[in-house]
Amino acid sequence: MMRKPVIAANWKMHKTIKEAENFAAEFPYEPDLCEQVDVVIFPPYTALFAVSEALKGTGIKLGAQNMHPDEKGAFTGEISPLMLKDAGCSCVILGHSERRHIFSESDEYINRKVKAAFRHGLKPFLCVGETLDERQAGLTQEVCKRQLSGSLAGLNADEIAAMVIAYEPVWAIGTGVNATSEDAEKSIAFIRGYLGEKYGAEAAGQVRIQYGGSVKPSNIGEYIRCENIDGALVGGASLEIDSFYSLVQGALQLAVYA
Ligand code: PEP
Predict the structure, then answer these.
(1) Does the annotation mark 101 as catalytic?
(2) Is the CB of residue 95 below 6 angstroms from any atom belonging to ligand 1?
(3) Which residues of 93-132 are buried (b: 16+ CB within 10 A; e: fewer)?
(4) Domain 6-257: top CATH class
(5) Any residues with CB less than 8 A from the CB of 205 and at least 6 apart, and which?
(6) Residue 212: CB within 6 Å of ligand 1?
(7) Distance from the CA of 193 to the CA of which of 23, 105, 184, 207 falls in 20 to 30 A?
(8) Which band of pLDDT confidence, cut at 50, 70 and 90, is reported for residue 115?
(9) Cα 103 to ligand 1 centroid, rounded to whole Å
(10) Is the pLDDT score of 51 beyond 90?
């Protein structure tokens, strides 16, 4: 595989500053770990700065779970790209299904955020994926295509190549019911094909596409072995050091990236 795998920890609304800081300080990284695998941690906002300090010198990257598209202004309760950079972030998750479904974020709004991320030098991790109803109605590919087309509107091929996309079927997130690697590979190959048609083979060959949805140490290998799957976005199994370490090791041992 020519793409470097990326294993990402989405901590959602979990961990105090102290808990997050301890995780980062105690995570057993090896000096050359991040040459083989990109490891990114997405803590809650309150812990970003402390985790950024604790990760210094490790090569592990830091990201936020969401952001507002504007730099500043009267947006009570929101956080801006400048603030995330200031706290030490280089990455940001955008369009997570919990943002789309619980907080009603539209593709158009997510698109503004993706563009803002690029303007400020933050790497977007764009999430797409179908609900159970959509899957049962045979709409998986149509939904992914609609979300990609809306969320990526106006981007160029270089930006597509530089970002990360996470295919996360909503029914698999936090449920313990993971998609089979065959299903995940099929959707991710479809996504890569779609991006190839729109942005060219080079960008589509470079963009990293993760699978997310109940990934754990016992199933990470199935995904990493798939041709089109470049790592995982992990919620529950990223909260404990042992389990997240096993996921990173799984990617390290099974990825054929050189
Ligand atoms: C996620 O938060 O994006 C996710 C995939 O969660 P989980 O691994 O818990 O299913």
Answers:
(1) no
(2) no
(3) bbbbbbbbeeeebebebbbbbbbbbbebebbbbbbbbbbe
(4) alpha beta
(5) 2, 3, 192, 196
(6) yes
(7) 105
(8) very high
(9) 17
(10) yes
Is 215 near ligand 1, meaning CB less than 6 Å away? yes
Which residue type does 215 have?
Answer: V
- Tell me if 39 sits within 8 A of 60, measured CB to CB: yes
From 96, 130, 159, 185, the catalytic residue: 96
User: HEC profile for 222-254?
Assistant: HHHCCCCCCEEEECHHHCCHHHHHHHHHHHHHH
Compute the half-sphere exposure of residue 111: CA atoms within 13 Å on the CB side of its CA.
14
Could you identify the atom of ligand 1 that is nearest to the CA of residue 168?
5
220, 208 contact by CB (below 8 A): no
41 pLDDT exceeds 80?
yes
Distance CA(52)–CA(34), nearest Å, equals 16
The answer, yes or no, to whether residue 1 has pLDDT greater than 50, is no
Q: How far apart are CA 185 and CA 171, in angstroms?
A: 16
**pLDDT bucket at 256, cuts 50 / 70 / 90:** low
Q: Comparing C-alpha atoms, which of 37, 34, 40 is closest to residue 3?
A: 37
Phi first, then psi, for residue 47 (nearest 5°) are: -100, 0
